[in-house]
């Protein structure tokens, strides 16, 4: 159903012609974009985009997607937490390895849901081990692998986010929880409004308590490396 042609869905001819003119031919093409991206691309009002997306979704989307959107509005949800995305995606693959096309569908739906309901969506990810020479570098981390390898400092634990670079680029704000020498830190590894920063924190009865409001700016491999030193019971515990 995802490959069903827009022209066969029964949209008003005026809006259907605009989809065709912008080379958005199938339901998958339309639903892979957020409503704001469609509004900008089609150059029409948001209300028209919402109406078209709703009609397309009603015909081709699985019932659970429509039900999730309905429940978010009905229950007046203010924050949606998905724990854990890596487990959800890996569970769809018999081999246990996340498939990028499956992940792409999840990303599109989560972004669409966030814009549809105007709420933040918090998604947790797992970590996996990686050798020192394979430390992950992303385009938003301004350092090359050869520069990283020249640095004498090495970490005791080499962990990276489980879902890889596709997920790293998809998220708007990326927070990393780690531990160094028994102290917990929360890192702002990616943000449209902040440089990479690290803040020490403690877990208290009332929640997370930052120990330093100014934080420390991060550079190079520190941005995306994940350490776990000195907390045998995990990062978050009482």
The SS-based structural class is alpha+beta
| Largest beta-sheet characterization | 5 strands, antiparallel
What's the tally of helices? 9
Beta content: 15-25%
Name the overall outline. Answer: elongated
* SSE succession: HHHHHEHHEEHEHEEEEE
Notes on the protein architecture:
The protein has 238 residues and is of the alpha+beta class. The protein folds into three domains: 6-60; 63-91 and 100-133 and 156-171, no CATH class; 174-237, no CATH class. It is 36% helix and 17% strand. It has nine helices and nine strands. It has helices spanning 13-21, 27-31, 35-42, 46-60, 63-74, 85-90, 100-117, 145-150, 164-170, and strands at residues 80-82, 121-123, 127-129, 159-161, 174-180, 183-190, 197-204, 207-210, 216-217. Strands 5, 6, 7, 8 and 9 form a five-stranded antiparallel β-sheet that branches. Strands 1-2 form a two-stranded parallel sheet. It has a two-stranded antiparallel ribbon with strand order 3-4. Helix 3 (35-42) packs across helix 4 (46-60) and helix 5 runs parallel beside helix 7 (100-117). The radius of gyration is 21 Å and the shape is elongated. The N and C termini lie far apart (48 Å). The model is unreliable at 94-98, 133-156 and 233-238 (pLDDT under 50). One of its GO terms (molecular function) is DNA binding. Residues 6-59 form the XRCC3/RAD51 homolog 2 helix-hairpin-helix domain. One of its GO terms (cellular component) is Rad51B-Rad51C-Rad51D-XRCC2 complex. Pfam families: HHH_XRCC3_RpoA, Rad51.
